Structures are given as structure tokens and as C-alpha cells.
Amino acid sequence: MITSLSISNFALIEKLGIDFSEGFSIITGETGAGKSILLGALGLIMGKRADLSSLKNKEEKCVVEAHFNIAAYDLKSFFEANDLDYESDTIIRREILPSGKSRAFINDTPVNLAELQDLSAYLIDIHSQHQTQELSEDDFQFRIIDAVGSNQAFLSNYSKLLKAYKKDKSALANLNESLKAILKEQDYNAFLLEELLAAQLKSEDQTELESLFEQLNNVEFIKENLYKSLAVASEEQFGVIQNLKEIKTALQKISGFSKEYQSIFERLNSVAIEFDDISDEINKFSENLVHDPQQLELVNQKLQMIYNLQKKHQVSTVSELLEIQNDLDNKALSASTLETDIKKLEESLAKTASDLDAIAVSIYKNRETAIPVLTKKWAEILLLLGMPNVRFKIEVSPTESYLNNGKDELQFLFSANAGSDFGLLKKVASGGEMSRIMLATKAILAQYSKLPTIIFDEIDTGVSGEIADKMGEIMKDMSLQMQVLAITHLPQIAAKGNDHFKVFKTTADNQTTTALKLLSKDERITEIAQMLSGSAVSDSAINHAKALLN
């Protein structure tokens, strides 16, 4: 419930503070006195957009602050989900700066308007005549039936399961699309993979094969130069080996004369040994080198296969071909994995669907049970409100579709007069009838669910005195379950309230401001008498006002 409201620098309000109590509070005032300004300020608290025109003094900021006792609303999960500090006495504040910028706070934590709107939906319900159109909407009609049918727990479980069902169904669709794409290319991918596997590629193949190809392709040239090298090294009189031996013998003779000669002799000896090894290697190369056209052709074929594969896959190395081979192999495996995943998900979906169906049946049965109870209560209340022949025809039909609130379709028909045909509510009910039906609906909902503070904004327009008296009684009964505020022009309703506030204008220094005050007992008698007879209050009006208050 709202416990207090303070407003500064908003429209015609310079500064205003008001404390609200539990039960039924009345707000009255002449047309244009500023009752709509109060609703505008509450609209800011509920997250509606603001602009600079709301500021009374354009040089100062506007602040609207409301305190709510939310201990009974079970909203801790909302605060946790939105990372807000939970307080049983929660404070909502809106500020409009002279720059036009607007700020919102919940318990001093900055929030965006969407969060404010979400929270305020649990706290305040401002009900005016134009909002009676909700009665024609399926969602609202189901809410009424489900409240009477005590479907809240079933709907909560259904909603959680439906969320999981939709998530899994979306995942299944994605998996099937992936599998479809893989299967579409499966034959071609299998051909590519088989082609790469047949090549028996190794990352070092290409370099080795290219080197071997160059050797086999140039056997005669290589042999010629190897023989030439061996001839120069091994010629009996003038070969390098013979010359090295002569130098070695000469240096050995003088090596004992100094360390330097000994060192150069040892170095030459190492060269001679190394050159002998080189000569032996050249000789082996020469002996092993054979002109083999068949091997040359095999190497050439292997290289051409690698070059063709590289061209086909638009890569330049064997390593890249091996990566493609691995990717194709994984695709073949992923098709099998996807089929397994799809089967598991289909089984999970079938289980979830079965659970959803079971809950939907329970929801349907409760709705069927609730309909006669609801129509009876409507008829009883609307009889008091001057609609003795009202009839409702409500039918709930199960469907195969998983809707947000079950699997049912709703047909909601209405007849206001005896002998008249049933029709859609929004087409056959007048504005006054819709207002009375909505009041009856709210009164019924107050018995079955924890409604927020409700503010009735002149829903009694065009209603006679006797009906107004009944409307006041209904609102007063509602206030036993919740906090009710009514903005009214009718004395019969005003007299039912526990507290009575008056909105009025004052003028000083050519400045008009809107003010609000809680009326005392005597002031209340006078206010109701004025509502009965106008500004000239007669004794009979005073007595009538006292009678209404009693």
C-alpha cells in the first residue's frame, strides 16, 4: 500500500505532502482543482515519461516521492532479479531536472523506466473509465477466471515448463537445420575426405618429394659432377688427397719446432680426415645414384596429386590439406553426434509436452469449475448496481496449441437485458455498464488475489444516487482486503470513505497553486453538503450530509 506521497514543483503544485492510511480514502474537489495533477504525479512514480512542461518553476527540479509498504506483496524475488535493495518500506522517487533530463530511483538505487513500470504494476492500479476496455481482452478475462479458479500455482509451473519447452524446441530446430545442411553436403564431403585419405598425406611429404623429384630428374648431371669431384680429389699424382698428404708430411717434419707449427699440423690433419670422409660420401652418392624412370614417374604422380588437391581446396601447403581432412572427418562424426543429440532432445520435448498437457488439463478443469462461481458473483454484485437482467456466457475450449496461459480458447459473451441476444462485451455493453462490470470484477478479484492499491478515477460518472451508494458500499468492502482510493464527484461515495481529502486551488501574488488537505469531521460534513447542494450550503444539505456519513 502507498503510505505517503510528496510532490514539489510539479504542474500547479509548489509543495505538497500527504499520508495515506489503510482502507478506503476519498479525494474530492471541484473540476479543474487539480485531481488530475495528483494522478499525473503518480504516473511519474509508475514510470510514465515526463517533460519540462511538468515543472512549475522552470529553474528548479521537480521531485515526486512515494513510500510503499510492500511487506505483504512477496516481492523479494523481483528485487533480487533486478539487483535492488529490498526494503519493506520501499521508496520510489522521480526527478525532472530543468535541463529536461529525468531520473528514477528505487530505494536510492538508479533504475530505468522499464524497471519502474514493472515494479509499479505490483503496487498501484489506477482505474479510469477508458481502462474498462481491458474487460474485452482475452488475457484479462483469463486472469479473472484463473483467480477465481485458484490456478496461480498451476500457471506458474506451466509458465516455467513452457519456457523450457520453447527453448528446447528452438534448439531442436537449430540442430535439425545443422543436420540438414551436413546431410546435404555429406556425399560430396565423403568424396573429398576419401580423396584426401587416399593421398596418405604427411606434413613433410611435399618438401621431401620435391627434393627427390629434382634428384631423379637430374641423375646424369649430378653423376657427372660427382665423378668430376671424385677425380679431382683422388687423382694419383695431382689429386687433393695426394696433395694434402704431401702437405701433412712436410708440416709434420717441422711440428716439433714450435707450438704454432704443431697447431697448424693438427688442423691440417683434421682437414685431411674430414676430406677423406667427404670423398667417401661422394663415392657412396655416386654408387647409389641410379637412373630410375619408374620411380621418377611415381614421385611425379604423387606431387601432381598434392598440387591438384591444393588447387582444389585453394591452399598452398600439405599442412592445410591435413587440416581440411580433419575438418571433413569431424563433419562426418558431427552428423552422427547430431542425430544422437536430436533423439535425446526429442525425448526430452515429449516428456515436457506430456507434463504441460497434464498441467493444462488441471488448469482447464479449474476454469470450468470457476465459471459458474464467477458468473453468479457478477450477477449478485451487478444486481446491486442496477443491472438485474445481466447474463454472462463463458465457454472454455481445449486446443492443441501451447498458449502462454494454458491450452484453452475463451468465448466471453454478455447480455445486459432480458430477451436480448448474447454478444461480445465491447460491442453490446455501454460505457456505464462496462464501468459497473469492471467494478464488480475488481471486487471479486479482491476476494481471491492480492491486488495492489487501487485508485478509482471518477468511474461513477453518469451514475444515479442509488447506484452510487451501492458502488460506495462495494468499494468499502474491497477496502477490507486492500487499500482503495476513489476520486469522485458523488456524495454517496464520498461518505463511505475512512479518510476524506480535498483538492483545491489557492491564489496569492498572482500565482495559482494546487493544495490538498485531510478534512476533519466538520469539514467533511461541509464538503459533502456542498457536493449535494452547491456552494450555498443549506441546513437540509448539512443534515443530509450527516445522514450519509452516519
From TrEMBL:
Transmembrane segments: none
GO cellular component: bacterial nucleoid
Keywords, ordered alphabetically: ATP-binding, Coiled coil, DNA damage, DNA repair, Nucleotide-binding
One matching Pfam family: SMC_N
A GO molecular-function annotation: ATP binding
Coiled coil: 328-355
Keyword Thylakoid part of the UniProt annotation: no
Keyword S-adenosyl-L-methionine: no
Record-linked CDD domains: ABC_RecN
Gene3D superfamilies xrefs: P-loop containing nucleotide triphosphate hydrolases
BP GO terms, sorted: DNA recombination; DNA repair; SOS response
Cited InterPro entries: DNA_recomb/repair_RecN, P-loop_NTPase, RecF/RecN/SMC_N
Domain RecF/RecN/SMC N-terminal: from-to ranges: 1-507
UniProt record similarity statement: Belongs to the RecN family.
Function in brief: May be involved in recombinational repair of damaged DNA.
The protein's name: DNA repair protein RecN
